[in-house]
Amino acid sequence: MKSSFYPTTNIRRKWWKECIAYQIYPRSFQDSNGDGIGDIRGIIQRLDYIKNLGADIIWICPIFKSANGVNVLFFCI
Fold this sequence. Notes:
Blueprint: H1 15-18, E1 21-24, H2 26-29, H3 40-45, H4 47-53, E2 57-60
Parallel strand pairs: 1-2
């Protein structure tokens, strides 16, 4: 599968201040195999759609068990 995701902007740009992020909840985003549950392959299939929306980066929410939405299993303050 060929993707059109290559850097096309000035790398000196302060991306962390200026970028448009698109957050994805994998389970509900795109189902690729018809089981009713979104998956990574579904995300890959929709990358061009996300790019056409104007997103510079994607934030994929955790897909494994995690505490309080962070991407580690056990997180203590």
